[in-house]
């Protein structure tokens, strides 16, 4: 298998996630797009790990999965708090610190 | 004879990769374009499952199993709970995109173009050949031998995230 196939797939998923983060109003959808970005990174880590014939890529991917789980937990708690205070999770409405 | 066997394996891997990659690409695109939030979560599930398949293709079974357990088992369920608790519209929403939609599309297209050119120049013609399969015990030895301090830091991070999520979402 070519190394580039995996890297192109990961780059595409990454950019789709970036589009989701930039263009979506719903906070939960933004969190889902962040998961997409983290998965693209994981694919890259594992592809380079297999390419270099080392186990380190797998270990790093496991750490990324652990951090992603923590991130989505705290992120959804923040989203629920925003919803409780404002009755909406539209990110365009959360502009209290806008200058 | 051995060369033919290797060639046949490569063809099988290519077909598996093509099927997985096509389903992941289509699902990712549908995830950021669909008007239904629950459908978006289900498309995300397809992408995550495809990533688990890619990991198996790269001979990383333990990471693939962890992906299925943590992402599909926990994260997607958590996201669906988030959608339900924030009373997301169950049918088609009116507009999920903000005003930056076209700017965001241009930015991500430029990003994917730039990344594609750079990757093509840097890694053209390089092959991934899985010469040595790392068993789960090898992964465990590496975590608890070479990466024991990051492992402990990750456990503290998970504890902090647990306490933080409870404190933030508590009703008082």
Note the main attributes of this structure:
heterodimer, A: 99 residues, mainly alpha, Helix Hairpins, 3 helices, B: Four Helix Bundle (Hemerythrin (Met), subunit A), 2 domains, 6 helices
Poorly predicted tracts of residues of chain A = none
Rounded radius of gyration of chain B (Å): 21 Å
Overall CATH class of the largest domain in chain B:
Mainly Alpha
Biggest interface in this structure? Answer: A-B, 70 and 89 residues
CATH topology name of chain A = Helix Hairpins
User: From the 3D coordinates, which CATH architecture of the largest domain in chain B would you assign?
Assistant: Up-down Bundle
Q: DSSP strand (E) fraction of chain B?
A: under 5%
In the CATH classification, which architecture of chain A applies? Answer: Orthogonal Bundle
Percent of residues in helices of chain B: over 70%
The CATH homology group name of the largest domain in chain B: NADH-ubiquinone/plastoquinone oxidoreductase chain 6, subunit NuoJ
Give the count of structural domains of chain A.
Answer: 1
Give structural notes:
The complex is a heterodimer of chains A (99) and B (172). With 99 residues, chain A is mostly helical. Chain A has a single domain (3-86), classed as Helix Hairpins, CATH 1.10.287. Chain A has 3 helices and no strands. Chain A has helices spanning 3-23, 27-51, 56-86. The longest helix of chain A is centred in the C-terminal third of the chain and has 31 residues, at 56-86. The relative contact order of chain A is 0.13. Chain B is mostly helical. Chain B folds into 2 domains: 1-91, NADH-ubiquinone/plastoquinone oxidoreductase chain 6, subunit NuoJ (Four Helix Bundle (Hemerythrin (Met), subunit A), Up-down Bundle); 132-172, no CATH class. Chain B has helices at residues 2-33, 37-57, 61-85, 101-123, 136-145, 148-169. In chain B, helix 2 runs antiparallel to helix 3 (61-85). Chain B is globular and about 65 Å long. Chain B starts with a helix and ends with a helix. Classes of the chains: A mainly alpha (99), B mainly alpha (172). At the A-B interface, helix 1, helix 2 and helix 3 of A face helix 1, helix 2, helix 3, helix 4 and helix 5 of B.
């Amino acid at each position: 298998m070519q190394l580039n196939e995996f890297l192109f797939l990961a780059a595409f998923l990454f950019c789709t996630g970036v589009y989701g983060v930039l263009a979506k109003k719903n906070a939960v959808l933004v969190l889902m797009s962040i998961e997409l970005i983290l998965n693209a990174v994981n694919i890259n880590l594992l592809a380079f790990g297999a390419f270099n014939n080392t186990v380190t890529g797998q270990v790093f991917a496991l750490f990324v999965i652990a951090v992603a789980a923590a991130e989505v937990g705290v992120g959804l708690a923040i989203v629920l708090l925003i919803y409780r205070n404002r009755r909406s999770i539209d990110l365009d409405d959360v502009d209290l610190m806008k200058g | 004879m051995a060369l033919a066997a290797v060639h046949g394996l490569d063809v099988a891997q290519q077909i598996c990769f093509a099927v997985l990659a096509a389903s992941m690409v289509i699902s990712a695109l549908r995830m950021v374009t669909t008007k239904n939030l629950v459908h978006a979560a289900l498309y995300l599930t397809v992408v995550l499952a495809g990533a688990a398949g890619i990991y198996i293709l790269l001979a990383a079974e333990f990471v693939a199993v962890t992906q299925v357990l943590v992402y599909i088992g926990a994260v997607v369920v958590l996201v669906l709970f988030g959608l339900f608790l924030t009373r997301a519209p169950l049918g088609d929403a009116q507009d999920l995109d903000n005003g930056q939609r076209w700017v965001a599309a241009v930015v991500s297209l430029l990003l994917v173009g730039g990344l594609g050119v750079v990757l093509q120049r840097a890694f053209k013609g390089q092959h991934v050949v899985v010469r040595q399969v790392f068993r789960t015990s090898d992964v465990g030895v590496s975590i608890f031998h070479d990466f024991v301090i990051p492992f402990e830091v990750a456990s503290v991070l998970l504890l902090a995230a647990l306490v933080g999520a409870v404190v933030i979402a508590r009703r008082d």
